[in-house]
Design a protein that fits this description.
Radius of gyration: 26 Å
Helix content: 40-55%
Distance between the termini: 71 Å
Number of strands: 16
Number of helices: 16
Structural class: alpha/beta
Amino acid sequence: MKMEESKDILTGLDRYEEFLRKLELEIQKMDDYRIAIIYTDIKYFKYINDTLGYQRGDMLLKEFTSQVTEGNIHMLCAARVFSDNIVMASRLENDISNEQFREFIHQHNLKMEERFREKYLAARLKFCTGISFISKEDRRLDPATAVSNANLARKAAKEQKDDCCVLFDSKMVEGIKKEIEITSSLTKAIENGELKVYYQPKMETESFRINGAEALIRWQKPDGSFIYPDEFIPLIERSGQIIELDYFVYQEVFKFIAGRMKEHKTIVPISVNVSRAHLNKMEILSYVRSLFEKYRILPNLIEFELTESIYIENTEKALELIKGLHEMGTKVSMDDFGSGYSSLNLLSRLPIDIIKLDKVFLQDEETENILKENDKIIISCIIDMARKLRITSLCEGVETPEQSDYLSQIGCELQQGYYFSKPIPRNDFEMFMDQNSRARELVLA
């Protein structure tokens, strides 16, 4: 291979194939030391490209590459795998522990983050790093496997909120096996009726009558046990199957509402979640339109929930989606408001109908769900701001009468949580509506 063909044009680093060749040679030469594999990327790099432009993004990537490699002690070789993914191999003396090396890389990342955030005006910029190690006992280890191990650790680091530098653990391989098992069985699970839609009521603060409900997915295996959403939703999001799952939920909700309308029974608006994957293709609008044409339900009986992070990460696409949904006559809400990346000016830019305050404001294990004064101030200010912007406010995670009373005092219009009802199966939800004599009856066409 010619020299120029073995180098990445943008960064000047080795191409990945050349890196693997060099790493294999280094593994064979290894004696009384270890080799550390460091796999790093820039979290939210796509967001930076979209907001700053690709030319600026390339400049950041080249500088990032230079800083990462220069700060690597005893570097043996380095490569750009793809996009912003950089992998390096470093010689590591045995008197340095794995944790000491991890802490060194972590501190180097923190210093880089501070410099880059200021220079590129990117407050959310973060570096995520995974590290695996090769000892002389591992000489038969395939270099690609060593890199894969470091990459697994990097993916784990991306899930961390604070410490974005993670050491590889063999349990991560078991996690991948579980991920493959779950993602490969999703379609069959839908066909077998294992996926079910549950409903959690939303209550009016003033009257305590039911105002709506949120549709939530549950996976019950044939033996009766459950795979909980926290276990399978992140995996299905990564595999891209989340769109298939969302469409299944939409279909079930439309069918449910249409059935209630046909029987002239009380029905309330049902909200469904919109995953970030929809913003990449925007096929969701045509799919939802086809459901309205098929089931002939009233548009005001469907609400679409987008998480706050989706609005932040791709505001323009979110605006396009909201506009399309509003044109069909549906409402749109911002879910998990205040969960991590709150940008209050979004409320003035985005034509949303409802904000759902994240349950983090109400949940506090130390105080047994007793609201702290600081949380009260934040909740009150958000609700007051929403009222002035003519946006409906809903607070999630209500578990005690004291929480509910406080939300009533400050004018929060809707409440949702275990204090009223946990998510329940369709039949139980129908009973909940039928037994609630004060439930709002909508005029059915």
